[in-house]
Q: What sequence folds into this?
């Protein structure tokens, strides 16, 4: 079965190949996604280029899991889902956070 790439995925592939050429990371053309980072400096340079060119930060909690180019590619092709605060269940919030649905207004002349 042949996997068809979406337009978004093709664009990401092109961006990744450009970043790879800028970082001077040696990759096999057929298996470029399987390429592991040879050292931390190369990983840092590659991820820094990705962040600046793809306009999406990588949280420090994810850095350990990004061991090869495939991991970084999957991270950047996964859509970002941002929950609306109103939709969050109280159970999922930290104990020190409380959402008040009604706004509280103070009179302007109150000091």
A:
């Amino acid at each position: 079965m042949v996997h068809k790439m979406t337009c978004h995925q093709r664009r990401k592939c092109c961006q990744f190949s450009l970043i790879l050429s800028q970082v001077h990371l040696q990759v096999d053309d057929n298996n470029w996604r399987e390429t592991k980072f040879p050292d931390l400096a190369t990983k840092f340079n590659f991820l820094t280029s990705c962040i600046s060119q793809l306009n999406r930060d990588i949280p420090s909690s994810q850095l350990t899991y990004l061991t090869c180019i495939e991991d970084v590619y999957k991270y950047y092709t996964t859509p970002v889902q941002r929950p609306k605060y109103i939709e969050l269940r109280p159970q999922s919030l930290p104990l020190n956070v409380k959402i008040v649905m009604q706004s509280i207004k103070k009179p302007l002349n109150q000091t």
Observations:
- The chain has a mean pLDDT of 77.
- Residues 89 and 95 are 12 Å apart (CA to CA).
